[in-house]
Amino acid sequence: MDQPASPPTKMGVSVTSRATEGSAAAAPVKVSAQNVDVFYGEKHAIKGVSINIPERSVTAFIGPSGCGKSTFLRCINRMNDLIEGCRVTGRILLDDDDINDRSVDVVLLRARVGMVFQKPNPFPKSIYDNVAYGPKIHGLARTRAEMDAIVEQSLRKAALWDEVKDRLKEPGTGLSGGQQQRLCIARAIAVSPEVILMDEPCSALDPIATARIEELIDELRQNYTIIIVTHSMQQAARVSQQTAFFHLGNLVETGSTEFMFTNPHDQRTQDYITGRFG
Amino acid sequence: MNLLLIAILLALMAVGYRLGTRRSRRVSTERKERLHSLPQHYGTLVALWCGIPAFIVLVLWMATQSGYLESVALSELPAAVQTADEGTKLSAVTRVMAIADGTGVVGEVSAEEQAAADAVAQARLIRTLAAVALAAALAIGGFLFTLRRITPKLQARDQIEFVVKALLFVSSLIAILTTVGIVLSMLTEAIRFFSFVSPIDFFFGTEWRPTFSSTGAGGAGEYGLLPLLLGTLLVSVIAMLVAIPVGLMTAIYLANYASPRLRATAKPIIEILAGIPTIVYGFFALVTVGPALHGLGETLGIDISATSALTAGLVMGIMIIPFISSIADDIITQVPRSLRDGSLGLGATKSETIRKVILPAALPGIVGAFLLAVSRAIGETMIVVLAAGNSPVLQGNPLEAVSTVTVTIVNQLTGDTDFASPQSLVAFALGLTLFVMTLALNVVALYIVRKYREQYD
Ligand SMILES: Nc1ncnc2c1ncn2[C@@H]1O[C@H](COP(=O)(O)OP(=O)(O)OP(=O)(O)O)[C@@H](O)[C@H]1O
Ligand SMILES: [Mg+2]
Predict the structure, then answer these.
(1) Do A110 and B344 touch (CB under 8 A)?
(2) Do B343 and A187 lie within an 8 Å CB cutoff?
(3) Domain limits, chain A
(4) Cα(A255)–Cα(A82) distance, rounded to whole angstroms?
(5) Is a pLDDT exceeding 60 seen at residue A17?
(6) Ligand 2 center to A66 CA (angstroms)
(7) The domain B222-453: what is its CATH number?
(8) pLDDT of A14
(9) Which residue of A185, A225, B106, B383 lies most exposed, with the fewest beta carbons within 10 A?
(10) Measured between beta carbons, which residues in chain A are less than 8 angstroms from residue B455?
(11) Bridge partner residues of A40 (DSSP)
């Protein structure tokens, strides 16, 4: 981790207090959630969560299973809209624009905030078409050559180009699990998002494929704001600059990864990180 | 009588079950050995060995009884009758059987007939007694034998498994044998037909005039399949033109847009369409749709007959909608949610997701559904009988009356039929053609559907 440590802050503490500490916090805020609640029917899945996510860095969401990490992640590109009976309240700002505002086109929002899922889910199309899917929908390429360039660039950024450049016409479902996940990352990158959400992107992969994806995430943070949900403390420690700990729908604690792992304020964070529960 | 026998047999089986269960327990305690299977298994085994062989004998006996008795009746009748033609023989035998049953016959009973009837009655008595005795012997024998065989080592559970497997096998065999039987009988009758009319004239003939020969003596009439095939094709194509878009869009709406509550009410309502008897569709076509189309044609200045390929096809299409929509709905909802989310997460709209991801992924299955629907359309009879107009002329205008293969089969088999003439036999050739067509479609459809299934398992 090349970021200097900053002390963790209690939930609800404002950005400014954190901005005085270390360079990670000094980066401008990309996504800001203010008092977000999520309900599944009667179930209160996220309880008054407020968090600031700095630009061009990796933020890890950790916490025991069922604590609401995925739910909160889905709020950020409004994928919860698709779930029957799910209700989100509070404000989520992307570059100071409320994403739940009526004027916001969810299609454009999802182009700005891309998502990589837990299980690799390539479309049953060719590798090329998988990557070209998003750009085609959003009209990002006017000519075939432009599209070829986007596809190549995205695959290169996803560290997959060398493995697939001779088989772009073959189905994406024919790749290995790790390759499929990188294909999904390439697919997300192809629409040039500003934020990439990753929900346990390595949980279906072996250690070698995981290492490759982690390397990739580390490179991507040059250009993108990345939020990653993970169950692996080591992974959070390896790839993220900030860590947020969720517990039973609450955001317990958030701060620089190094500090969270060495000197957390909250007993629950301490217990979770040291493996006493989870 | 037969019911009583079966009831007795069942009672015997119940007793066998009880005794077998009890004996297995006793044997186990006496010999201080653990039973291989549960006591109930031993009881079941006794019941099965008691029931199944006897049951088979009874069924065989019942199935062959009347054929046997008729042959006895015929052999007892005078030689003059035995050498007469089929019709005479049949009526003579029927008379004898009626006398033997005591149901009474028209006219005087001749001495020969009475003698034959007595012989039949006697044969019946002997045969019945023999069958019942054999069944009883088998039942009691199986009962006692199995009961004696019970030891703790007897692998009753495995033997029951075997019997169950055999029963299941026989059941599936029945379905298969029936199919083979139907096909074979169609095939033999069709071959008889082809001894009157050459296959080339049948399959490539463009004229359909089967009634010609019934007035003339030698001429076989014209049996060209093509006008009928074209009619079937016209009606089916119109039906599919109605059913595919409407059914598919219904499925897409139900699977992707409708709220769960709407879906839960709409789906059963649409499926009620599938439960309406086709004859009802038929007179709906005849009474409502046909005249309406005719009227529409008049206002537009087009000549539309009330009974036409269009009328029949339209109504048949409506009938097939639920068929397509429910299969397509199942297939669309089977497409993994992760694919849908992946597309939506990239900023695709719902309809883009459906067009570019869901439908391509579901396409093979949907094509399978289409093919199954086509084979239904081809085989559908009642609607076309009533609404297609029955005009077997080679013409491609959907606004005119047509005739189809199914309608023609109905026509050839209703009224006075003589199963030795090409007029009736042609029905088998037509049926066989229809069967081969739908079979081919089904095979292709199932192949496609299966291929699709493999993709996501
Ligand atoms: N579609 C849904 N309908 C109803 N309740 C849901 C739904 N999705 C999640 N929940 C509930 O909301 C809570 C948070 O779920 P969520 O999936 O966000 O947890 P998570 O932290 O991602 O867990 P995991 O680490 O196991 O993925 C859980 O109690 C879950 O049961
Ligand atoms: Mg989750």
Answers:
(1) yes
(2) no
(3) 20-123+194-273
(4) 31
(5) no
(6) 7
(7) 1.10.3720.10
(8) 38
(9) B106
(10) 124
(11) A43, A86
Alpha carbon nearest to ligand 1 atom 1, residue: A83
Ligand 1 atom closest to the CA of A74, numbered from 1:
18
C-alpha torsion A8→A10→A12→A14, nearest 10: -40
Q: Ligand 1 atom closest to Cα of A71?
A: 18
Q: Does B271 touch chain A if contact means CB atoms closer than 8 Å? A: no
pLDDT at B219: 55
Instruction: Please tell me the residue having the least CA distance from ligand 1 atom 6.
Output: A40
If you count residue pairs, one on A and one on B, with CB atoms under 8 Å apart, how many are there? Answer: 66
Indicate the range of A221-235, A237-251, B292-306 predicted with least confidence. B292-306
Predicted structure pTM score: 0.73
Ligand 1 binding pocket includes A52 (Cβ within 6 Å): no
Domain positions in chain B: 2-154, 222-453
Tens-place pLDDT, residues B391-445:
888 888 888 888 889 988 888 888 766 777 888 888 899 999 999 999 998 898 8
Instruction: State in Å, rounded, how far the first CA of chain B is from the last one.
Output: 54
CB-based contact, B342 to chain A, within 8 Å: yes
Which ligand 1 atom is at minimum distance from the Cα of A63?
21
Q: Give the span between the Cα atoms of B44 and B37, in whole angstroms.
A: 11
- Which whole number is the average pLDDT over B30-54? 90
Residue A10's identity, in one-letter code, is K
Mutate to test the interface with A, among B346, B356, B451 (most CBs of A within 10 A): B346
CATH 3.40.50.300 fits A20-123+194-273, yes or no: yes
A10 pLDDT more than 60 = no
Q: Whose CA is nearest to atom 28 of ligand 1?
A: A66
First to last CA, chain A: 25
CB atoms B347 and A111 under 8 Å: yes
pLDDT, one tens digit per residue, over A152-173 is: 999 998 889 999 999 999 999 8
Q: Which residues in chain A touch residue B339, judged by CB atoms under 8 angstroms apart?
A: 121, 123-124
Distant-in-sequence, close-in-space partners of B25: CB < 8 Å, separation ≥ 6? B35, B39
Residue A198 has what pLDDT?
94
Contact B383, B309 (CB under 8 A): no
Measure the CA angle with vertex A153, ends A147 and A156; round to 5°: 140
The torsion angles phi and psi of B389, rounded to 5 degrees, stand at 95, -15
Cβ neighbours for B278, distance < 8 A, ≥ 6 positions apart: B319, B380, B381, B382, B383
Nearest atom (ligand 1) to Cα of A84? 1
Residue for token digits 């065999």?
A: B173
Atom 17 in ligand 1: residue holding the nearest Cα: A70
Half-sphere exposure of A252 (CA within 13 A, CB side): 23
ipTM of the complex, rounded to two decimals: 0.84
Got the DSSP string for A134-167? HHHHTT--SSHHHHHHHHHHHHHHTT-HHHHTT-
> CA A77, CA B144: separation in Å to the nearest integer?
76
Q: Is the CB of A80 under 6 A from ligand 1?
A: no
Per the CB < 8 A criterion, the answer to whether A198 and A116 are in contact is yes
Tell me how far the alpha carbon of residue A192 lies from the centroid of ligand 1, in angstroms.
29
Q: Is the CB of A251 under 6 A from ligand 1?
A: no
